[in-house]
């Protein structure tokens, strides 16, 4: 669940599908060596086969401290340092207010918020001057969305983590920013909202079409690169204008 840089040979990590896979591909094209992280071994194997020689995979969950330790121990042993960390793991489900359960809340916040916190905390030990941390947010963090309040609240939390961490990281030379996509046609979005619904949502944006993961990956490459060297604590929307009007 983490990532690379633009125009430089650097080491990083990310996931096996959707925005994660597209970003890993883009980072490798820009010269990065990438580690991807996710729970489904078959998806990871398929991703590495697609990405080629400059990608490796580690299986595990961001909700498991031992799995995260194993991930970053692997990176340290094999590569030594980490330049870009893309914390992109996330989950969500359409659940209206009257049907929210403790289980739904716990799962969403454990992955989207707790997972992000400890992914960054543990990965930070391998980072130094010039490092870039990218957190995946969402337009739902700034918009009201029916039956999506828990997911939306978790993404609003992620947005504020970046603001606070930008303060915590003063003097380290490490930047942290949020990348907020939607509507983007990913596997998760198709499962949660529906492919047709995502396409329809895309048609309502000023751009007029649903986003492709490669378009989000391009923005991730920008945040990973020195081209965004004067950005920290910021949020970059790749949403076709959905949350901007």
Brief rundown of the structure:
With 245 residues, the chain is an alpha/beta fold.
Q: Which tags fit this structure?
A:
245 residues, alpha/beta, three-stranded parallel sheet, 7 strands, 43% helix, disordered N terminus
Explain what this protein looks like in three dimensions:
With 245 residues, this protein is of the alpha/beta class. It is 43% helix and 14% strand. It contains 8 helices and 7 strands. The strands form 2 sheets. It has a 4-stranded parallel beta sheet with strand order 4-5-6-7, sandwiched between helices. A 3-stranded parallel beta sheet has the order 1-2-3, sandwiched between helices. Strand 5 (132-136), helix 5 and strand 6 (175-181) form a beta-alpha-beta unit. The longest helix is centred in the middle third of the chain and has 22 residues, at 102-123. The radius of gyration is 17 Å and the shape is globular. It starts with 10 loop residues before the first strand and ends in a 7-residue tail after the last strand. The model is unreliable at 1-14 (pLDDT under 50).
